[in-house]
Design brief:
Elements lengths: L31 H12 L23 E10 L2 E8 L4 E7 L8 E7 L5 E6 L7 E10 L2 E4 L3 E4 L10 E6 L8 H8 L3 E5 L15 H12 L5 H6 L1 E5 L21 H6 L6 E5 L2 E5 L22 H13 L4 E6 L20 H14 L3 E6 L5 E6 L2 E5 L10 H5 L3 H5 L5 E5 L4 E9 L5 E9 L6 E7 L5
Parallel strand pairs: 9-10, 10-11, 13-14, 14-15, 15-17
Antiparallel strand pairs: 1-2, 2-5, 3-4, 3-6, 6-7, 6-8, 9-19, 12-13, 16-17, 16-18, 19-20, 20-21
Length: about 475
Amino acid sequence: FPSSGPEVYPALGNLHLLPYGVQEGQAVFETAPGALVVEAIRERSTATFAEIELRPQGTVRSTQPSVVAATNGAPVTGGARLRVATDVPARVTIEVATNPRFRRPRRITLGITDEFGAAMATVRGLPPGTTVYWRARMRRRRQESLGPVRRFQVPPRAGSAAAVRVAIGSCAAQFGPVFDELTAAAPDVFVWQGDLNYPDTVGPFAQTVAGYAGIWRDFLANPRTAVLFERGLFAAQRDDHDYGVQDANSTNLVPWGLRPWESLVESRDFYRFSAGLAEFWVLDQRRHKTDPAAPDGPDKTLLGAEQRAWLLRTLEQSRAPFKVVCSPCTLAPLPANARDGSWAAGYTRERDLLLKHVAQSVGGRTIFVTGDTHWTMAYERDGLFEARPCPLGIPSPNDITLTQPLAAEEARALPGVAYADDERGHFALLDVHGTPGGAARLDLTLVREDGARPYTRRFEVPDPSG
C-alpha cells in the first residue's frame, strides 16, 4: 500500500510512476522495455485459487469489528462530514460531544457499512468555534467496539470576523517533508484538490474497484497524514489520477475511479463551504470535462452545464468578502499542459466567461488557487489572481524538470508572474480574519517544503458588509 512505502527519495522524483503509464512515462507501455516490465509482473502474478479451505481450531465466534480509518471530512454549515471504514461489516453509530469524556453525547445512527466497509455522516447544529470530539461505535451481532476519538473545530459562522486558517495543495507522489510543514501549520481545513498519491501507480493489477477501495482505505489511515486528518477538517477533491486515468475526462472514465472514492472519501462531485469571512468552492474538472480534442467554444467545458451554472450562481449570491475558488486546473495565460487542456489552454472560452462574470456580477474579492501543473507560481494581472501551490510532493527530477527544465525560469520573465519554482514542493496557507478597523483580511502565503515562506500576498476588503 502507498502508506508502507517506498521511502521518499529526493533524487528520484516520480521515478516510481513511470512503469505504470502515468505522467510523462505513459509511453513506457508502448516500448519494448515497458512490455518486458509488464510481462515480468504478469509472470509473478499467475497464481489462481479455485478454493480456499479454512479449518478453525476451537469455537467459531463472530469477529469483533474495528476501525480501519476514522477521519474528518469537509466542513458544512455548523459542522462537518465524518468518515468511517471498518474491517468487517458492522452497524455504525457516531457519537459526538463537546467534551473528550463524551458526557451526554449526541448519537447518529448510520446503519450497516456498505460494500467497501464504509459509512459517512454529516453532523450539523454545532456551535461555531467549538472543539468537537467524535468516535464510532460499531456493533456486529453481539460484539461491540469503540473506535478512536477524533476532534475538529467547527469553523466560524459565515460573516464572522473570527480567525480561520485553510491550507490548499495538490499532487503528491511521495509523502515528503512538506507534510511536516502542513502538520506544523495546524490548518482548520486542508483542501487537497487532486492527485492524492497517484492510485493509478500502485500497479496495473490494482486497477480494479476492489483495488481502489483498498487504496483509499489505506490512504485515510496513513500515519504520515494522521494528525491532519484526525484533528483538522479534510476537504478532498479528485483530479485525473484519482479517477484512475491519466488526463481523465468524461469520455474515458473507469469504474474504479468512481464508486470507491464516493463511498470512502467524498460522495459529492463539487461543493462549497463557508469559513468566517471567506467562502470556498471545491470544483471537479474531470467528470464532466469535454474531450480535449474538441474545438474550443461555448459548449466546451471543464465543469459541465450543471456545475458551471451552480458556480456562476453561487459566486454571485455569496456575501462573503473573499471568494476562494479551488480549481484543480490553472487559469493564467501561461504554458501549462496543452495536451490535456485547462482553462489556460483549450478551454479558454469557459475561463473568459467565468472571469467576465466575476468582474461584472461578483462582489468582494475572488481569488483562484489551482493545481495539476507541477510547478508552483503566483500570478496577478488584469484582475486575475492565481496561486498554484503544486506539487505538494514530487521531488525533482520529475516530469516538469525533465521535459521543461526552464519552466519556472522562463515564467519569471513573463508579465504577471510574481513567483515561480519548479524544484520544491509547496502548499498555500490562507489566514482569514477581521481587523480592528472592521475590514476583512486574507493573507495568502506559499509555504515551501523546507519551511521557507517565499511569497505572501495580503488582500483586504474595507467594508465586508457592503
